[in-house]
Amino acid sequence: MGKKITVDPITRIEGHLSITVEIENDKVKDAWSSGTMARGFESLLKGKDPRDAPFVTSRFCGVCYSVHQMTGIRALDDAFGAKVPWGGTLLRNLAMGAEYIYDHVLHFYHLSALDYIDIMAVADYKGKDKALNAVKDKVVSLVNAQDTFPLTPRYKPDEFCVKDPDIVISAVKHYLDALTMQAKARNMGAIFGGRQPHYQSLVVGGCTQHPDVNMVAKFRTMLDEQAKFVNEVYVPDVLAFGTGPLFPLAKMGLGGGHYNYLSYGKETPLLHGRDEADQIVIVKPHNRWIFQLSLLQIGSAGKLMTLPIVLGKPRASVLYSALLLATYAWIVGGVVARAMPAFSLLALLTLPLAVKAISGALRHDDEAKLLPALGANVMVILLTQLLMSFGYILARVF
Questions:
Q1: 186: number of CA atoms within 13 Å, CB side?
Q2: Which domains, and CATH codes, for the chain?
Q3: Among positive and negative, which fits the CA dihedral 171, 172, 174, 178?
C-alpha cells in the first residue's frame, strides 16, 4: 500500500471538503473526496411554503447564493405555470449579471491568484511607480509586523511559482483593486435585487423591484466602471498568467477533466418566440429603451413603470404603434369635424418618421438596430407638435 496524503480542509472554497490521495511510486494511485459537513437544506425545506424555497436555498453559499436562489425561483415558475413578463426577466438578468461579474473577479484574484505568485517577491521591486511602491511598503510592513493574512499562509513556492518582482507586485496591486471592484459589483446587484447578498426582490413570477431612471443610470454607470476594469485589468492578467509564467503548467494538463473550465451561466432570453436553445445573455443593459419609451407611468412619484415592463415587449410595441397611428387619425378627424384648422394637417408630414419608429419597435430589440427608431420617435413627438402649432398660426393669418 502506498503513502496516503490528506488535505483537510480544502481552502478557498465554500463548504467543507477533504481530499485524500494515495501515492505509489511517486504517482497518484487513488484519490477520495469527502464532504465533511451535512448541510441539511432538504430537511429545512420540508413543510414550508414553496415560495420560501428560493430564500432558503440561497443560503447554500454567501458567494454564489444567487444561482441557488434563481434555480429555486425557476422551478417554482414552472410549478405555478407563471408567465414572467419581459421586464421581470430583464431585471432578473441584470441582477444575476452583476453577480457573475463579482464572482469571476473574486475567484481569480481573491481565491486563486495568490497561489500562483511568491508574495514575498514584492520586497525586491526596484521600480519608481508610486502606487506600486505603496503596495511594496504595505506588504513589507505587514511582514515585519507578522500580520500577513490573507497573503499567508500559502503553498511553498515551487518551479511554477511566479517570482518576478514586477509581475508579482502588479498582481498584488490588482488584487487590492479587485477588492473594491467586487464590492461595487455586489452593490450593482443590490440595485435591482433589493439587497446583497441573498436577493429579496427576485421572486416567483418576476421581480418586485420598480426601477426608476435614477436606478437605471446608477446601474449603467457602475457597469461601465466594471467593464473598464475587466477589459483593462482582469482579462489582461488572465491572459498574461495563462500564456506566460503558468503556460508550462497548463501544457502538463494536470487536473484536466472535460476541460470546459469556465461557464457564464444561461439566463432566460428576453424575447418571446425566439429560438432560445443556445442563447447566452451578455451582461450589458442593452435594452435601455424600455426605460426611455415611457408612454405610461404608474405608481408613486419617482417610480417608473413603462409599458414594456407592464405588458411585455411584444404587446407594448403593438400598443405603442396603435396609439401613434391613433394620434394621426385624431388630427385628420379633428380637421374633418372642423374642430381643428385645415393647416393642422401639416402634422402629417411626420408620418414617414412615425412609420420608421413603429417598424423599429415591432421588429427590433437589439440596441444598435433600435436606436434609429428611438430617434425617429423623438422627432415625431417634437415635429408633430411644432407643425400643428404652425398650422394654427397660419390659420389665423389666412
A1: 17
A2: 55-251 (1.10.645.10), 289-397 (no CATH)
A3: positive
3-state secondary structure of 176: helix
Predicted local distance difference test score (pLDDT) of residue 266? 56
The predicted pLDDT at position 119 comes to: 84
Task: Look up residue 60 and give its three cell numbers.
Answer: 447554500
Question: Nine-digit cell at 298?
Answer: 404608474
Over residues 24-54, the pLDDT tens digits come to 988 888 999 988 877 788 888 899 999 999 9
Element (H, E) at 3: strand 3-7
Residue entry with cell 439566463: 267
Does the pLDDT value for residue 168 go beyond 80?
A: yes
User: Which has the closest alpha carbon to 126: 136, 139, 117?
Assistant: 136
Summary mean pLDDT of the chain: 81
Phi, psi of 190 (to 5 degrees): -70, -20
How high is the pLDDT of residue 397?
62
- Residue type present at position 236: P
Bond before 352 cis per omega within 30 degrees:
no
